[in-house]
Amino acid sequence: MQDDHATQMESRADVAEMTVRIADLERQFADVRQRCTEQEQQVHQLRVQLERSDQSSSALRALLEITPAWVFVKDQQHRYHMVSRSYADALHLDPKDFLGKNDLDLGFPEELVKGDPARGIRGFWTDDRQVMDSGKQMIYPHDPATVDGTVHVFHTIKTPLAQSDGSIWAVLGLAQDVTRITQVESALKESLSEQQAMIRAQQELILELSTPLIPVHDGVVIMPIIGLVDTTRAGKILETLLDGIGHHHADTAILDITGVRAVDTHVANALVQAAKAARLLGTEVILTGITAAVAQTIVSIGIDLSSIDTQSTLQQGIARALSRKRRASSVR
Hints:
The chain has helices spanning 2-66, 85-90, 110-114, 124-134, 179-210, 231-248, 265-280, 292-300, 314-331, and strands at residues 70-75, 80-83, 138-147, 150-162, 168-177, 214-217, 220-226, 252-259, 284-288, 309-311. It is α/β, with parallel strands linked by helices.
């Protein structure tokens, strides 16, 4: 009986030990299974990333084939790692012909590649170095490049490319040919300049036509003033009056303001200045076209015209001038 009891005890101990070992193995298996599941997830994620990468690469290759812009990647030694089809076609090369070469190897003029400060040319490499050293994107609106012996103008954007550790290894460039646009802009500016010159000439002609000086008698001239008198026109009135007095040897000038739409302080001061300037040349000024309303306005703004001979109508002004001429002749 004792032997049977001992045997049972040993069996129970073995079972307990086996149970513990099985439980431990189950835990180990669960851990392995968990790790396998995690690895499967990682593999799946990596596969997705690779597929996305392939899709991105495929999209990039398609873009490089169809874009009309010049797209390129150059490293720290200015060697090409990638170019668009349009860039290669412009130089009559295959995109693969660019790989490992720099701009000088491809035949670009040295002054455009390395720059020529005396001629105001920055140079491709100067721009590349600026972008890679600063780590900042740069935009060059008027970037020259020679294509088939002709200098074209490009709008160029250059941006730095960094490695996983953050160090800049290359520059990505996108250049759009804006030569035609630049030519059109220049033509428009030239045309606009010509139009502005024509407008100025027309304005001067209008000023001359709007401020005519008319000789009506020996030594008597009339200047009819019509419309708005601004600063520019006031200066033209004074200039025309003084030139006409000298040219016609006038001793009497009649300024007729019948056609002036509004008489204000500016207009009145211009008339006073003209009369004073004429008097310095020995010419008397008669101001005509003073209506009751105009007279009231002049008084209300406080302009003193007492030094100027005023008449209500042009006819009266002419009669006054001729009367002076007759008196002067009789005295002589």
